[in-house]
């Protein structure tokens, strides 16, 4: 039977475990999605060139740069610690997602299929929120 301070400790441990599980699941999903979107850019496959260069008008040299930047962002959010770098990585990945959404709408108009971009935004937002919950719960260290 759990009583008094043991109950308080048990509740805190349960809360921390829940935060960590939600954080890591959302972070891994977000990282996997961003990595899957980075790979075609890094290798400059034909579909990436078609969409980013031919349809949206981005210069070809920017395609690989964006892919490598996404890869570095994914690495940064997966490595424990380095909280300031992690903040920049989240910002960069969200700038990429917002820019991609805006570019798609600006070049082709709104299409209901663009709502699939939510599958990138939602785990990213959850990951970011729970990263901060972990920082708060651990006193700023992860």
Keywords:
single chain, 142 residues, 5 helices
- Percent range for β-strand residues: under 5%
Number of helices: 5
How much helicity do the residues have?
Answer: over 70%
- Taken in chain order, the helices and strands follow as HHHHH
Major sheet characteristics = none
What is the overall silhouette?
elongated
Can you give the mean pLDDT?
92
Summarize, please.
By secondary structure, the protein is mainly α. The protein contains five helices and no strands. It starts with a helix and ends with a helix.
Polypeptide structure, described:
Helix content is 81%, strand content 0%. It is built from 5 helices and no strands.
Structural topology:
Layout: H1 4-42, H2 46-55, H3 60-78, H4 83-108, H5 118-138
Helix pairs in contact: 1-3, 1-5, 3-4
